[in-house]
Structures are given as structure tokens and as C-alpha cells.
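batch job 7 of whatever, protein = Metallophosphoesterase
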Amino acid sequence: MGSMFNYLAPWRQQIPILAGNRKRRARLTFAEGEFAAVYAMSDVHGCYKELVEAHRRIEEDAARIPGPKLIVMLGDYVDRGPDSSAVLEFLSRTPPPGFQRFVLCGNHDAELVNLYRKPARILEWLGFAGTETLHSYGIDIEHLLQSAAGSETIARVIRNMIPERHIQFLESLPVMLQMGRILFVHAGIRPGIDLKRQKDSDLMWIRQPFLDEGPQLPVLVIHGHTPARIPTFGPQRIGIDTAVSATGRLTVLTIKGTRVGIL
């Protein structure tokens, strides 16, 4: 239980630490009812086996449902767990037959891109997260740091070991998906602010005042980012980050018609 408490406890202190890509990420829109079933999950954090098992259960559940199906991933595919590289490889492939899959960007994903493009900030990034991610690509960052490797050497190792296509995949990810009155984002939204004026940084990083106040717009927000042991239900919001790297539980939220449930 210790690792879970270590993971859950410090969330209030997490803030952006690296300069991000200033290019605004895409936002996607679909009509309500366009998919017969929608499956959403968040904060995989390097837990490849759990991700594969979740997809297996989704396919099993959806086999009884006619019509198009959608899987929505709500961000944070890297850090904490052991297999970030395998998670990115899996998500960059085509989805299961009969499904569309949209992969949104989380704050940890954006920070990995920043590290790759600006590796001189390696120590700040390691203070935030990331050691497990580098290990998943075969990078012994502790050895590099102990050997007093300079930033240029570390940058070269990172670029040699992390495939450029994984970084390009993360750079391409949208930051929001709206389906009628249901909104999928990684972290939440700035309460009361029109969706067109929401900043990428808010959508990927916000906690308060969103967690207490909700969106204060006519939408239901499905989000991750803030870990809890079970899904959380707040004002016009449902949080589905159940800290899989600490608890082993990867929550899948389902939307079938007007019914919202947990797979």
C-alpha cells in the first residue's frame, strides 16, 4: 500500500515545470449518438499488461453491440509504470476491428515531448517523473548522471533510444473530444470559460477549482489526472484515474445510449 499512498498523496503540488509547445492542439467534435458504445480510460502510466487486458474486455463486451464503437484514451501513457515504450507502441497502432480509437494528450505525455526536444531540462523532468519511462527504452539515466555525462551526451542517448515516431505520435495528439454534451479531456476545464477559450495547459493540468466547482457549463466532463482508489463523481464530472500503476486497477467507463457505467 505504501506505493499507492506515495502516488496519491502529492497531487496537489504537481504543476507545469517545462516550457511547452506553443502550438495549440486539436479539439475533436462528434454528434451525440454517433457511436453505439463508447469506452474511455485514462492514466495508463506505463501499465502495458493492464492496457491490453482492458482492450480484450472491451472487445468482449462490444461483441454484443451492433454499430460503430469508440475507444477514448484520456492521456498520461508514460511514467510511473514499467512499460511506457510498449504502451506508446500499442496505442500508435490501428485499433481493434470495428472500433475507432482517439488518443488524447495528458500532461506527462506533453512533458516527455518537451524533454525530447529540450533535453537540457533533464534534471527538472526527472524531479517531476520520467525515470521509469527512460528505463523502458533501455536508458540507464542513473548511470549517465553518476558518470557526469553532459546534457549533450544525455540528449544524444535519448534521441538514439526513443523512436522519433513515438514523439511525433505524442505531438499529434488532440487535447479534447466533445460528443454532444459529453466532454472528454485529460484533467478538466476552467470553470465557466467557453470551450473555445480553454487553454491546452488547463485541459492537461487543471485540478482546482474544477474538481470542486465542476465545468459550470452545460456539459458532463469525463477526465483523469487526479488519482483516486475508485472513480470519483463530482459536479458534472466523472474522474476515472484509479492509479493503475499503484493499485493495478485500470477503470473503463462505458457510454451506451444515455447510460453511463463502469466496465
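notes: The CA atoms of residues 72 and 102 lie 5 Å apart.
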